Each structure stands twice: as C-alpha cells, then as structure tokens.
Amino acid sequence: MATIKDVAKLAHVSVATVSRVINKKGYVNETTKELVYEAIKELQYVPNELARSLFKKQSRIIGIIVPHLTSYYFAELLEVIEDITVKHNYRMMVCNSQDNKERETKYLQVFQQYNIDGVIMISNTTRIQDYKSLNIPIIAIDHKLTEDVPSVTSNNTMGGRLAAQKLVDCGCKKIIHFRGPSVLLPVQDRTIGFKSVLEKLKIYNFSFDLDFKNPSQEDIQNVVNSNLDCDGIFCDSDIIALNVIQSLKSAGKRVPEDVQVIGFDNIELSRIISPKLTTISQSTAKIGQYAVDTLVKLMNKEPIEKFHVQIDVTLIDRETTKC
Amino acid sequence: MATIKDVAKLAHVSVATVSRVINKKGYVNETTKELVYEAIKELQYVPNELARSLFKKQSRIIGIIVPHLTSYYFAELLEVIEDITVKHNYRMMVCNSQDNKERETKYLQVFQQYNIDGVIMISNTTRIQDYKSLNIPIIAIDHKLTEDVPSVTSNNTMGGRLAAQKLVDCGCKKIIHFRGPSVLLPVQDRTIGFKSVLEKLKIYNFSFDLDFKNPSQEDIQNVVNSNLDCDGIFCDSDIIALNVIQSLKSAGKRVPEDVQVIGFDNIELSRIISPKLTTISQSTAKIGQYAVDTLVKLMNKEPIEKFHVQIDVTLIDRETTKC
DNA sequence: TTGTAAGCGTTATCAC
DNA sequence: GTGATAACGCTTACAA
C-alpha cells in the first residue's frame, strides 16, 4: 500500500505538495501537478481515509439504524439510501437494532468511535437523548422524535384517508383497520386519516393492533370470524393484507366480491399474487433521497428549509377492490 | 470527546499506562488500574477506533458485497451476518453492487481506504483478481470463485435432487424447471441434482432460464401455455414459483391438482399465500454463521479446515404438492 | 511497574 | 509555489 510519502518521493516533491494536489487546495504549479499525478498513477496510490478522518475528525461514514432488514419496506429504503449515500461520497455502516435498545446503545458507541459524520434513524427508539448527546447530525425516517430533529415520513394521514375513501367509494359499510402497533407515529397518523373519512360519513369501523414483524395469524382469524358482516378491510402492511386474505378464504369469504381489501407498502409480491392487491404505495425513493440529501446538508452545516417533511403516498388500484 | 490524554491527566498517569489498561496488555498495578478505570468512567471515555486502526492497520470493519438488498434471501443473509459480525466485535460496511462491476470496483477502493479487515462476497463478480490484489481475507457465499478462496453455499445439488424426487414421488410425468440464470453456480448445481434424478427414471423434463430479480411474467406464461401437459414445476425461487402459480391459474390449471409446484428459499410469504408453497429451505442462519466465523479465523490468521463448505437444504412440505 | 517518545498516514499552518 | 513540521488519538518498543 503506497502512502503519500512514497508518492512525494517518486515525484521529488514534499508530502505537502502531494496533499495539495490530491485535495485540489492551495497553489501548485501545473507541471509539478503533472509529476504528482504520474507518481500517483504509477504507485496506484489511494489516500488512506483513516488517517484523513483522524485529522479531520470526520470519517465520511454515516450510520443507519434500522429495526430489521427482512421487511421489504426497510430493505427498499436501505437500497435507496445506500445508493444516494455513495453518490455523495459517503459510506454506510448498518446497524440492525432488532428493536432492541441495548443493541442500539452499543452501536451509538461504535458510531462515536469511528467519528461517524451523521446518522439516519429508522428505528423506534425512545432514547433520543442518547442520540443528541452524540452531537452529530441526525435525520429520522418515519419518526418525529422531537421538534428539533429533522424528519421525513410518508404522508400517512393521507394514506389512511385514501384507503378509507376508496373502500367507501366501492360501497363498504363496515370496515376493519388491521393496523400496526399504535405506539408508532405512522400507525397513529394512518388511523387519524382513516377515521376522519369514516366518522364524517358515520360508517362503522374499528382498528385492531398487530405486530408488523409477526402479525398473529390467529388474532386475524378471530377478528375475521367474529365480524363476518364486515365488507372492507384496510391493512397497515401488505403482509398483513395477505394474512387477512388468507383468513377470509378460511372463513369462506371471497375477495373482492364479499370483502374488499387494501394493503400498505406496495411490495413486489402485491402484484404477483392473485387477486392482485390494491394497496397504498410509499415512495421509498423520495423518502430515502430526501433523508440523505438533508443529512448531507446538515453535515455541511448548510441550513435546511423544513424540519418535518411528508411525502405523498398513492393508491395503487388493483384487484382486491371492486371499483 | 475525551481522549486518552484527558484520561491520563485525570488519573495522574501516562497515556501508555492508560493504553495498557484499556487493552489489558502488559503489567499495570492493580491500584493504578483502578484509578484509570475511574477516570475513564468519569470522562465517559471511549477509545477512538480511527486512531487505533491507523496504527494497527486494521479497522475492525468488514465489507459485504451483495447484488441487492430487496430480495428476501439476501436480506435474511445480511441480517444473520450483521448479527454475528457485531458479536465478534466487528462492524459491517455494506456495498450494494446492483450487479454492476463498476460499483464493485469503486467499493473495492473504499475498502482499501478504510483498511477493511475482510470481505464477504455474495456478488456475482468475475473479477476475482481485483479482490485478491487487495490482499485481505475473503469468503464467498454462493460462489466458488477459485480453489483458494474459501466459500460456503447451500448444497444446491441436494436441493435439485430433493425437488425432483418429491415431484416424482407425487406422480409427476412431465416436469419443468424454471431456473435462474444458468451462469450462476447455484443454478447449475440445482440443475445437476434435478436432472440426475429425472434422467435415471427417464422422466421428461427441461429447464428454462429466468432472471432472479425480475423474472419475466410473459416468458413464464408462454412456457406454461405451450406445455399444458406438464404436471410438475420446480422453481429456483419462491418469487418465480408465485409467478408460475399465477400463470397456471390464467391457463386454467389448478395447483396442486393439475400441476404441482415446488419453490426455493422458503420466504416468509410462502406460508402465507394460498395454497401454501412447498419449497426448499436454505439455512441462511448456518450459511451466515459459517461465513463470518470463517472470515474471523482468516483475519486472525488461524487455519481453516475446509475451503469449500456446503450446507444442507431441506424440503418444506406444504400445499402445492399432492403427497 | 511506569513513562518517554516514535510512528501510523494524513492535513494545515507557517515560513521561505 | 513549495517544504518543514506539528497535530489528530492511539499503540508499542525501549528506558528507567
């Protein structure tokens, strides 16, 4: 591994000059510049980021905290984030919190040890103080932590509204909302949007809480069985929706003839299964892009316009709804 | 951020002593040790890994190259790998190659710049030489790159065999294999296992290549339509299987009554959809564990027993097969 | 048992 | 324009 010294020696200049060349900073004569470039090429020199980071106290690494990797929504988000991150010439250190506070705390220490430049939080932590004490820029996805920590989320209220409106438009009279854990902000917002439409129209509805990672098939079946007159179901994830459709089948109900179903996330599979799932699509592309771009601004100490941004969602009309 | 100097000052000792204490290396008096620990606690000191890494020329970071993040198999693998990685006190830098050589090459440079200690390759690269020239330990998953690069894979031949045997046992007479790209080793092995069983029994069969990431629904439909007498289908992924089942429905075929289907991967959804999918399960847990453990051994310059390891797969018997 | 000091590969501040 | 050199925070001979 060639170092800056090797390059300096080969080019017959000082390390300072080489440094100026590679950083394009300060004056340096065109011809010596050429010399340096040649030496760099010859030695296949690449500057050592660790040394750089040590001096500059920043590492061009950003930390990402996610609750898990195997849910399609998070995976897609991560994919977008990674892509934009490398475009900004940063790298990504991934922390899978597994929704576990201790793992998160441990990782926060790691972040410190590596002089991480910023963090993207997609986690459900409550210990926001721990993050703030790190004193590095943070952006939250899907969680409005506090007023002063920037965040970006889907417009979940809109999602709830769109779903409710669609079911109403297609003639539903009794609607169930199989939602995620109601402690989560996105879930709360979806519920608000959902109820806002239905209550105005005095349409009977209720919400039932499920775990996102492992929605209880049993609970779903029970709720379905004891509400056989229900004709519309809004689910907070496509996975939940698939479980629900399964339960409806077991209960002898046809989709969408007897019961109409709307999911959330627009996962790849929602258009492969049959009947194809009507669902609400979140723009992971926009969320991820905004998150990274904003974080980069924060890391550069540039001002940001808005602290809390919401990204529109769209209803994807497919076969589990009638109209 | 407290440094080792601050600790030294507070504990009235030299930095060397502090270093000895935190690294548990060399002699240090019990009572001074206590003093140091107190100072560390008081200042909430954590050693800076960048400085450490710079000196030791190793960073406790391992690089992971994956083709993409949104396929369930890779996500699961990544989840396991992350888990074991942190247990070994390493961190993970993720490179999503997007099956793109240039991205991969760019990341290799990044790996160099950060003195990455080892890499786990789940990618389809052909430029193994680029990796070797990095001169750091590598382990490949799902790809036997060359004889001297350790690898771990599922026993894909076994997978092909199990699937073929199952279909035969359940009475199939004409079997199609919707496989992945036949340039991939796992795909080749599955084909070998699959054919070994069928050819011995002289059962008609053929293989059709598809893309894993975006299997062409159209191609599948065409093949299905022009082989209406086929009664058994083995798919190289559950996603392909779902597509196939969809196409069979369009063609008026019932699963499993008319055509029996077996998938691969045992993704979460395979037991949610209806009929529940019979499939071959790969043990991502074992693969990931072996990969990381072996890489750690290599990084510690410990010997490893076997260079190429295969992990057994299992047939998960569900509803898309008749017996 | 402890401290001094060199060095890891950079960048940035000075002189020249 | 360019070159010494201190500094970033740490580890490890080597002395004491």
What does this structure look like?
With 323 residues, the first copy, chain A, is of the alpha/beta class. Chain A has 3 domains: 4-47, 434 Repressor (Amino-terminal Domain) (Orthogonal Bundle), CATH 1.10.260; 61-153 and 285-311, Response regulator (Rossmann fold, 3-Layer(aba) Sandwich); 156-282, Response regulator (Rossmann fold, 3-Layer(aba) Sandwich). In chain A, 44% of the residues lie in helices and 17% in strands. The first copy, chain A, has helices at residues 4-11, 15-23, 30-43, 49-56, 72-87, 101-113, 128-132, 156-169, 185-200, 217-225, 238-250, 284-299, and strands at residues 61-66, 91-96, 118-121, 138-141, 151-154, 174-179, 204-209, 232-235, 260-264, 278-281, 308-311, 314-316. The longest helix of chain A is centred in the N-terminal third of the chain and has 16 residues, at 72-87. Chain A is elongated. The first copy, chain A, starts with a helix and ends in a 7-residue tail after the last strand. The mean pLDDT of chain A is 95. At the A-B interface, α4, α5, β2, α6 and α11 of A face α4, α5, β2, α6 and α11 of B. Chain A binds a DNA duplex (16 and 16 nucleotides) through residues 3-5, 13-17, 19-20, 23, 25-29, 32, 47-57.
